[in-house]
Design goal:
Blueprint: H1 2-28, H2 34-38, H3 68-79, H4 91-94, H5 141-150, H6 159-167, H7 170-180, H8 187-198, H9 207-212, H10 222-232, E1 257-258, H11 276-279, E2 288-289, H12 311-319, H13 340-351
Antiparallel strand pairs: 1-2
Helix pairs in contact: 3-7, 3-8, 5-8, 10-13
The structure holds heme C (2 copies).
One heme C binds near residues 237, 291, 296, 304 and 318.
């Protein structure tokens, strides 16, 4: 009887496993929780987002393949001030297509003109960032988008309130239904839609790309061509060691964190610890994520604290060898040996990285921002 007994035990065990298997998801998938949304895939057919010349294949998370409907919904959410507590601030207030998906302030202004401590980085090509934010504290565009909605100095709302407002708007209920096949709006579906829209904000095919990857010898000037050599030469500008240019594509970022001494005082004290606040690793003190340099010409001011009003000012920082402090990156050293012509060549090269935005990334017609004095060009 022993084998039968054993079979009984095995069957009982299997039964228990199946039971657990079945009950677990229904416990986790209570409506409104993160777990419930994780299993929801878009209702429509996934689309291939077109990648311009000079960019690598687009990374897409398996649980959020973009569809025409989720992208359109995300675009609307991105430009809708409904996501802020007093209907005054949208994502585009601080990441405005007119200024290369950043803003003109050194540090961003949110609801009630409250200010944060950092400059708004560009959303352009952020689909390629392995970590989001200057300090890399968010692992994905989806996770990133949850931050500003609830940040008291940005949109100053709550996830619950945003979901409630969207659910109360019949137009959004219909759009969510179309995009996600559900009547139940959740914050996860909100951020997944926004992330899919952001994945369409791609800039490549600049004069530089047409020269370097498209082999059009006339795409950039002779000065910009010399600038490119200086940019990549480790003995000259040494810029490409961090702002990388690959064989088939160029992101102009290594997706890593470096200390340039931005924000350091004359004694080398840093006012923002950057990546250190996430990793608590001494080596990350005052280190910030290398930003892309694409569309740099329309994105002033520069650096994590927006302290440089022009590209020329940013270059001057490198010429001077950065601000001395205990954690200055070892790749940063004075470039005062560069002649004035060489400095001009570097600027001409940086200028060649700017290109027009893709179609269909601006505000939907009925959500065009009302011209506020602060939104106008200075
Ligand atoms: C009040 C201004 C403000 C608003 C509103 C705002 N952001 Fe930001 N955004 C910032 C600032 C400032 C940072 C950098 C913060 C940091 O690194 O600590 C940032 C970072 C980001 C990043 C990371 C980019 C990178 O290179 O790391 C993305 C993507 C982004 N925001 C998208 C959004 C989206 C989507 C919304 C709307 C849901 C939004 N932002 C709303 C100011 C804003
Ligand atoms: C050691 C890595 C490293 C090297 C080398 C480097 N950069 Fe950077 N670059 C960064 C980081 C990191 C930032 C952001 C720093 C911050 O805000 O604290 C940055 C910011 C910039 C910005 C501002 C971009 C923005 O969106 O605000 C420009 C312009 C720039 N670099 C150009 C250059 C040029 C030109 C060179 C060569 C002369 C160069 N970089 C060399 C890492 C580097």
């Amino acid at each position: 009887m022993k084998p039968l007994h054993r079979l009984g035990t095995v069957l009982l065990f299997l039964f228990a496993v199946v039971l657990l298997w079945q009950t677990q998801p229904s416990v986790q998938a209570a409506p409104g929780t993160d777990q419930a949304a994780q299993v929801i895939l878009p209702a429509g057919k996934p689309v291939q987002i077109k990648v311009p010349l000079g960019l690598p294949p687009l990374p897409i998370p398996p649980d959020n393949p973009p569809t025409a409907e989720t992208i359109a919904l995300g675009r609307r959410l991105y430009y809708d001030p409904l996501l802020s507590s007093d209907n005054s601030v949208s994502c585009a207030s601080c990441h405005d297509p007119q200024t290369g998906f950043t803003d003109r302030h050194s540090v961003s202004q949110g609801v009630g003109r409250k200010t944060g401590t950092r400059h708004s980085p560009t959303v352009i090509n952020s689909a390629y960032s392995t970590l989001q934010f200057w300090d890399g504290r968010a692992p994905s565009l989806e996770e990133q988008a949850k931050g500003p909605i609830a940040n008291p100095v940005e949109m100053a709302s709550t996830h619950a309130d945003v979901v409630k407002r969207l659910q109360a708007d019949p137009k959004y209920v219909a759009l969510f239904k179309e995009a996600w096949g559900t009547d139940q709006i959740t914050i996860d579906l909100v951020v997944k839609s926004i992330a899919s829209f952001e994945r369409t904000v791609l800039c490549g095919n600049s004069p530089f790309d047409r020269f370097y990857y498209g082999h059009d010898k006339k795409a950039i000037s002779a000065s910009a061509q010399r600038g490119l050599k200086l940019f990549t030469d480790p003995k000259k500008g040494n810029c490409a060691v961090c702002h990388t240019i690959g064989k088939d594509y160029a992101l102009f970022t290594d997706n890593k964190f470096h200390n340039l001494g931005i924000g350091a005082d004359l004694r080398g004290n840093l006012n923002d610890l950057g990546r250190f606040s996430v990793t608590k690793s001494d080596a990350d003190t005052g280190a910030f994520k290398t930003p892309t340099l694409r569309n740099i010409a329309v994105r002033a001011p520069f650096m994590h604290d927006g302290s440089f009003p022009t590209v020329k000012d940013a270059l001057a920082h490198y010429i001077g060898g950065g601000n001395a402090n205990a954690h200055l990156d070892k790749e940063i050293h004075a470039l005062d040996f560069l002649s004035f012509d060489e400095r001009d060549d570097l600027l001409a090269f940086l200028d060649s990285l700017t290109t027009k935005l893709p179609d269909n990334v601006g505000a939907p017609a009925d959500l065009q921002p009302v011209a506020k004095p602060s939104a106008q060009k200075q």
